[in-house]
Amino acid sequence: MSEIIRIDVRPLSVRMPRPWVPEAPDLHLVRVDVEDRDGGTGSGFSWTPTIGARAVAALLEDDIRRFALGRDSDPTVLWPALWAHLHEAGGGGITTIAMAGLDLALWDLRARSRGVGVPDLLGRTQERLPVYGSGVNLHYTEGELAAQVERWVERGIRAVKIKVGRPDLGEDVARVALVREILGADRQLMIDANQRWDVDRATRAMSALAPFDLTWIEEPLRSDDTAGYRELARRITTPIALGENLHTVHRFREALDAGFAAVVQPNVIRVGGITPFLEIAGLAEERGVTLAPHLLPDLSAQLAVTLPRATWVEDVEDAGFDALGILAAPSPVRIEGAWATVSSAPGLGLDLIEPAVA
């Protein structure tokens, strides 16, 4: 590979058609463009839904750029060296989110230099993948929630995920019961508490919610409460899913070794990019644990089609890059009905642009 001679960083923000929380209507990305000494170029991005975009951009513009310039553009060579260099600032979080922007750009460069897309570079194993409808909908009224689930059913979606964690457990029970009634008995239902409970509250909640035949409970506790997850897994029967807020392969290995993670959900950006994502996916495959990438279907589906086993693609309503209007050309990931497919495009095929102002 050739040396990196240029790294450009550009923050982008876009107003979401369906804000995930009312107080944070915008989604934030940081575009990263690279060039190597042979004239090859690549483009990647970091992503922060609500918190930390300026910090991510600053880390990329300062420490990451200074370390990476002049080094080998092979992402598998650069990533571990850069992570070790940045570790004093934190092993994960802002550190790995920022690293992802450069890692994606280098994978994009690598694939483009060989005239292929990243899925073809890695080796496709899947023709299409099942999609589950995912709702960031805790603030929805029951009527709005019902309408969303009905839209998924009309699309032919076979599995959906909704948010739980309202202050009144009775409201959670009523909302889950409503969704189960709409779905019927033959579709899968997952719930996501987004780290809102402690062990005792999670125990009470799952005692009330488990009768609705749940595929998994996602992030019932704070992501770093390893002891709490061990105890909760002993108390409840519903499988536990987690991983969107784990940032390193070491944390995933810890969760798998402890035995409480039935489903792991790495977010490609939060773990630091494609390089560590592939390592985490390999670890999950080795342990025989289900992997279901978190969000960003325009990116995560491109990696999911290269995995040994078919996995879910998470599709949050109106949150894809095409819907957000931030791509210069259509996304290579197409979600139609209950399925996702990935077309061939150079590199990652994701050329982020400043969204048009309405």
Alpha-carbon Rg, integer? 20 Å
By DSSP (H or I, 4+ residues per run), the number of helices equals 12
Give the mean pLDDT: 95
Cα end-to-end separation? 43 Å
The total strand number stands at: 13
The major beta sheet can be summarized as:
10 strands, mixed
| Model regions low in confidence, pLDDT < 50 over at least 5 residues | none
Shape: globular
Helical amount among residues, as a percent range? 25-40%
Structural class: alpha/beta
**Percent of residues in β-strands:** 15-25%
H/E order of the elements? EEEHHHHEHEHEHEHEHEHEHEHEE
What can you tell me about this protein's structure?
Strand 9 (263-264), helix 10 and strand 10 form a beta-alpha-beta unit. The protein starts with a strand and ends in a 16-residue tail after the last strand. It is α/β, with parallel strands linked by helices and 358 residues long. The strands form 2 sheets. Strands 4, 5, 6, 7, 8, 9, 10, 11, 12 and 13 form a 10-stranded mixed sheet that branches. The chain has helices at residues 53-68, 75-86, 94-113, 118-122, 142-155, 169-183, 199-209, 226-235, 249-258, 274-287, 297-304, 321-324; strands at residues 4-15, 26-36, 41-48, 129-134, 159-163, 188-192, 214-218, 240-242, 263-264, 290-291, 313-316, 333-336, 339-342. It is built from 12 helices and 13 strands. Helix content is 39%, strand content 20%. The chain is globular and about 60 Å long.
